[in-house]
Amino acid sequence: MKKFFVLVIVSLISVLNGCSDNTCTSEKQTIEGLWKPEFLNEQGSAKAPNEKSAFGEVFIKFNSDGKINGMSGVNLFGGEYKVEGKNLILSNVFSTRRAGEFGEYEMKFLTALSKVNSYKIENTKLYLMGENKIQLILNHTP
Fold it and tell me: For every residue of the chain, which 3-state class applies, written as one string?
């Protein structure tokens, strides 16, 4: 009976050690991959494009080589990123210069992105934070 009890305790500890920040996964979560916005701080009435719009959906992709690229509403953008613990540093961000229907959304998206200095991942959501609030919530897209 003692051996069974010890085995149960050891198993329970192993399972609990795999859980952090209210998530349980067998793999370490990573920022790498394709993410699409669900929430944009201070979006207001700015209309977001969708997959049927001329420029496609807004997204950001964090590549394994430390580069980012994406669509911000009307324009493509790119740059570099660095993760240090939960800190996220975006640098050398550039964008194409087209005009279009979703320019107001794009301005707000890029402004929010420029404020980001930390992040957290919970399940399939990426929270980008800055100025003591959530700037963007993005959904992981396989």
Answer: CHHHHHHHHHHHHHHHHCEECCEECCCCCCCCEEEEEEEECCCCCCCCCCCCCCCCCCEEEECCCCEEEEECCCCEEEEEEEEECCEEEEEEEEECCCCCCCHHHHHHHHHHHHHCCEEEEECCEEEEEECCEEEEEEEEEC
